[in-house]
Amino acid sequence: MKKTIAVIAGDGIGPEIVGEAVKVLKKVAEKFGHDFTFDEKLVGGAAYDAFGDCLPDDTLAACKGADAVLLGAVGGPKWDALPGPKRPEKRALLTLRKELGLFANLRPAKVWSALKDASPLRPDIIGEGLDLLVVRELTGGVYFGEHVRAADGQSALDKMPYSVPEIERIARTAFAAARTRRSHVTCVDKANVLETSRLWREVVQRLRDAEYADVELDFMYVDNAAMQLVRAPSRFDVILTENMFGDILSDEASQITGSIGMLPSASLRADGFGMYEPIHGSAPDIAGRGIANPLATILSAAMLLRHTFGLSAEADAVESAVGAVLARGARTPDIAKSGEKALSTTEMGAAVLAELDR
Ligand code: NAD
Asked: What is the pLDDT of residues 97-136, one digit of tens each?
């Protein structure tokens, strides 16, 4: 397979962790006989310093022209004083999502068996393990509806619009993902109150019956889902939900795994094109010290292989390699116990590469 990947490492620890993920993708290409080209561009504060713009035209064009995008993280104190629309997070991240049409946000939350101690949940709640995927609608709902403040300033209104096509396309993403996992989708909503939620239920049920009858589907109110995530998280496989509920639940789900340096994400378009990034930020407090955990970015690269390139065996190989190095005790400082020997960013990357070579 011949593919081009736009690589936008960004700020802080971005270049350190993305560097390791690119090495892993190169190893996968070599091992499985693919031809990946890496088109490296500046984004975020690094691009602002070079060109006065956190998302230069050249970077956006490279992302649009690529088969997939691998992003590190953007932002940091150096650029905090920039006016809102020019800041790395707003100018780069929101524009990329909008311009690339990334309507589906996938955030897997997994407690790796070797890292069970890191979770704030009790061992009996985690049980044999925890492995769920939040599929969040990313470009609709109340964040993109009308926001109005009355002329007298004493009342306000936020609209939460959703259309059938918007619900269908995100539901398809969730059902397709479920087929590669444990074939169970839980659609989370507030259908006892919201009309948009009732529309979601109708559309999701109809789509499941017509096209995904092999996937189990149930519905849950969002307040109950927030509770079940800490009470019985292993009951979930894929959580499908709208933008705002997904924003909140995906953060909750990530925290129950206990380690921000381990969590990947994908933002997808209908044709499978996607932008892949760790869920954490640029970690300016540890940038340049070579101690950042590269595994979230390496796992984001695995998601890229699976979701955009359809290379499941290759994605499985990367995820198994991560599981194996963790099982053997490889730890960066963020996941090491006190007194435990910790690896540097490049040593952790090298451990994954060595495992892929086995
Ligand atoms: P952060 O995620 O960067 O860091 C939070 C804490 O987690 C820090 O102590 C950091 O050292 C640690 N951490 C994060 N990633 C780690 C890793 N891979 N290995 C080890 N430790 C890790 O969040 P923050 O400090 O709130 O934000 C820093 C900057 O990043 C801000 O400018 C923020 O706006 C930006 N940010 C960017 C993104 C993005 O690019 N998608 C996301 C979140 C925050």
From this structure: 989 999 999 999 999 888 888 889 998 998 877 899 999 9
Nearest CA to ligand 1 atom 13: 283
Q: 38 CA distance to ligand 1 centroid (A)?
A: 24
CB atoms within 10 A of CB 338: 4
User: Cα of 173 to ligand 1 centre, how many Å?
Assistant: 28
Instruction: Decide if 300 contacts 264 (C-beta within 8 A).
Output: yes
Angle at 165 between CA 164 and CA 169, to 5 degrees: 120
Residue owning the nearest CA to atom 4 of ligand 1: 283
Token pair listed for 298 = 């390496």
Rounded Cα distance between 199 and 299, Å, is: 34
pLDDT digits (tens, 9 = 90+) for 319-334: 999 999 999 999 999 9
**Residue 274 in 3-state DSSP?**
strand
Distance CA 134, CA 200 (A): 16
Q: How far is the CA of 201 from the centre of ligand 1 (A)?
A: 35
79-88 long-range contacts (CB < 8 A, ≥24 apart) are 79/11, 79/44, 79/45, 79/48, 79/54, 82/48, 86/48, 86/53, 86/54, 87/54, 88/10, 88/11, 88/43, 88/44, 88/45, 88/48, 88/54
pTM: 0.92
Residues assigned a catalytic role: 143, 190, 223, 247, 251
**pLDDT tens-digit profile of 259-292?**
889 999 999 998 999 999 999 999 999 999 999 9
Which of ligand 1's atoms lies nearest the C-alpha of 285? 11
Specify whether the CB–CB gap between 231 and 121 falls below 8 A: no
Tell me how far the alpha carbon of residue 250 lies from the centroid of ligand 1, in angstroms: 16
Q: Whose CA is nearest to atom 6 of ligand 1?
A: 283
Task: Look up tokens 């190989």; give the residue.
Answer: 317
Q: Which ligand 1 atom is nearest residue 278's CA?
A: 41
* Bridge partners of residue 105, in order along the sequence: 136, 267
Q: Which atom of ligand 1 is nearest to the CA of 76?
A: 32
